[in-house]
Amino acid sequence: MTVIASPRGTQDILPASWPLWRHVLDRAAETAESSGYERIEIPTFEQTALFMHATGEHTDVAREMYTFEDRGGERLSLRPEGTASVFRAYFQHGMRVQPQPVKLYYMGPMFRYERPQAGRFREHHQFGCEAIGSEDALLDSSLIRLQRDFYRSCHLRPFTIQINSIGDTECRPAFLRTLVEYLRKHAGELCADCRQRIERNPLRVLDCKVESCQPILDAAPRAVNALCDGCRNHWNRLREGLEVLGIDAALNPRLVRGLDYYTRTVWEFVPEVGGSAQSTIGGGGRYDALAQAIGGSPTPGVGFSTGLERVLLNISDDFAAQLGRSAVDIFVAHLGLEAEVEALRLTGELLCAGCRVDMAFGNRSLKSQMKQADGRGARLVVVIGDNELALRSATIRDLRTGEQQTVVFENVTETATALLGGQRTSPASNDAP
Q: Does residue 274 contact residue 71 with C-beta atoms inside 8 Å?
């Protein structure tokens, strides 16, 4: 019988990988909360209409959604991204009466039916921050800073920050007419995908990575040169904020978003080496038109999201090597059925004392149990055998020094905690550089 494998585009996060994942998740929460962002947990699935209104029916996001009908006949979709859900929660729970902007962050799995590749899965995990209720360009700058600080705290390899402004509903229509006119003139020199997008979604043409298209797209009109007064002031204010924060961000006039609700600021973080579309670490932007798209009243917003799998791919190899597997303070070994019962009791006592403890189960040799203790990264091993049972004592061995001593059962916990001397293994210590 063949074991059923996991679905294509999904992954098992195995114990050996979890310390690195925990490091990233902890840094995400710490970085967001240090800037006043509060955690929100959004549903794994929503009404399909929410995402359709937010993204449009003919976008890549809409085509890649996992959609189903429940027993009540309601059309539901697994969430392909988090921003629409956060905005929905903002309106549904009356957050407009709170001091603005409302600053929220989320973490969790997202689902899109796309071709799996390195750092891209059909079920992937995202960390995102959303600031809702303010048009202030300095808020955009602060989010770029937050995202940069998160990546730095994760010990990512060097990256660059790219920014652009794509205008708003006042100035973008005129720019799009100019862009479409230019693209039509050069349609014969563009790839098939670009030619199809000229009429359907011309901004996405600028995002094409086909080599033969690059000369034409590099010479295309730039949105940043066609901004209205409001967008130009916002753009200048954004750059002023970045300068004050000491953030070096490069203008990329071809940086766009394919969804209509994005306005003004867009940005991306790209590795210094191999900065392709697939290697982009994460990005963000302003989406002042999203609220009305999902049926809410006009409300500005700005935020970012980053795929955690992509973050893991970009963590420095030297730092990743320092994060060992999750370890324990003490491993309790035993020889014999009666000794195993006493080992179980002692394990519970040590756990109550705040130690991280594991024990062996079943009838195994002491040699194999010691090997297991070493594999679990234990500092101390407590051994209980026939001799120890007769004397109501246990042998405590320090695996770092090789020293050992015999201690009566009543004093094992006190002695073990004293030997650890404040050097207990903890989830946080595994994350330290």
A: no
Helix 192-200 with 172-185: angle, nearest 10 deg: 150
Class of domain 330-422: alpha beta
User: Tell me, what amino acid is at 154?
Assistant: C
- Is residue 421 left, alpha or beta, with left meaning phi > 0 and alpha meaning psi from -120 to 50? left
Average pLDDT value for residue range 152-180: 94
Beta pairing partners, 162: 250, 268
Give the H or E element holding residue 126.
strand 123-132
Cis previous bond, 101, omega within 30: yes
Backbone angles phi, psi at 359, to 5 degrees: -145, 165
CA distance 226 to 177: 11
> HSE-up of 273 (CA within 13 Å, CB side)?
6
Is-above-0.85 flag for pTM? yes
| Distance between CA atoms of residues 138 and 238, nearest Å | 6
Q: Which two tokens mark 134?
A: 């303010």
Single out the residue of 89, 78, 5, 80 nearest to residue 39, CA to CA: 89
Buried b (16+ CB within 10 A) or exposed e, 385-400: beebbeeebbbbbebe
Q: How far is CA 360 from the centre of its chain?
A: 35
In the chain, CATH 3.30.930.10 sits at: 15-171+227-320
Which residues belong to CATH 3.40.50.800 in the chain? 330-422
**CATH, domain range 15-171+227-320:** 3.30.930.10
pLDDT for res 275: 45
Residue 24 burial (CB count, 10 A): 24
Mean pLDDT of all residues in 265-292: 85
Task: Determine contact, residues 330/350, Cβ cutoff 8 Å.
Answer: yes
If you search the block for the tokens 């003139």, which residue do you land on?
Answer: 185
Average pLDDT for residues 420-432, to the nearest whole number?
51
CA atoms within 13 A on the CB side of 344: 8
Distance CA 38, CA 33 (A): 6
| Residue 384 DSSP SS3 | strand
Helix (H) or strand (E) holding 270: strand 263-271
Closest CA to 320 of 332, 311, 331, 329: 311
pLDDT single digits (tens) 219-248: 999 999 999 999 999 999 999 999 999 999
| DSSP reduced 3-state for 130 | strand
Answer yes or no: are the C-beta atoms of 206 and 220 closer than 8 Å. Answer: yes
